[in-house]
Write a structure and sequence with these properties.
Chains A, B: GO terms for molecular function: monooxygenase activity. The structure is a homodimer of 113-residue chains. Chain A is α+β, with helices and mostly antiparallel strands and 113 residues long. The first copy, chain A, contains 3 helices and 4 strands. Chain A has a 4-stranded antiparallel sheet.
């Protein structure tokens, strides 16, 4: 897992998938799955980066070249299995938001947007 | 602070501001500012919700009715002061991404998107 650094994304536009979740108690294979999904996401066409943090609430933002790349990742078999198990076992609540990043700026390059 | 629950946002489209950061060591007034900024954000026109977590990496996603509402919040005086101090003192690195949420689905309502 490497979601602990700020993703080095290109100039917008690109796609962000914001996945917010509340866990059920206990691990139940969650940590292993999460590491595997991040590893697998990095291999997909159009993957740009991933950022994640959990502090009660979990937030994972994955970045993709476009909506089609994000949609394709949603359909990858091993990921579909994980999504099903997430709904059944790991998540008490979750929300997925697919968004188009239109502006970005940061500490590295001063104000771009 | 109440960024520990999943924001109850309306049907898309709406605007998400994804703020990712790495802190400098020590508090230096950070916790108080963060609580105040969340309190202040909730009072702004077009505010829809906020979610945040920090685990090494900090991720805060605020949701707004549209880009204009998000841009207006960026210009609120007390927030401008906090942004300046953030660049100078609190953040070792950060990135802000402004995005348009186009699809959303979650546990509460089955698949919408």
């Amino acid at each position: 897992m490497d979601g602990v650094s700020i993703a080095r994304t290109p100039e917008p536009p690109y796609t962000a998938v914001i996945f917010t979740s509340l866990r059920t108690p206990g691990d139940q294979g969650y940590a292993r799955m999460a590491a595997r999904m991040e590893e697998l996401a990095r291999l997909q066409p159009g993957f740009l980066g991933i950022e994640s943090a959990r502090e009660g609430l979990g937030i994972t933002v994955s970045y993709w070249s476009d909506d089609a790349a994000a949609a394709a990742w949603k359909q990858v078999h091993e990921h579909v299995v994980a999504q099903d198990r997430g709904r059944e076992v790991w998540y008490a609540d979750y929300e997925v938001r697919v968004a188009t990043v239109t502006r970005a700026y940061g500490a590295r390059d001063g104000e771009r947007g």
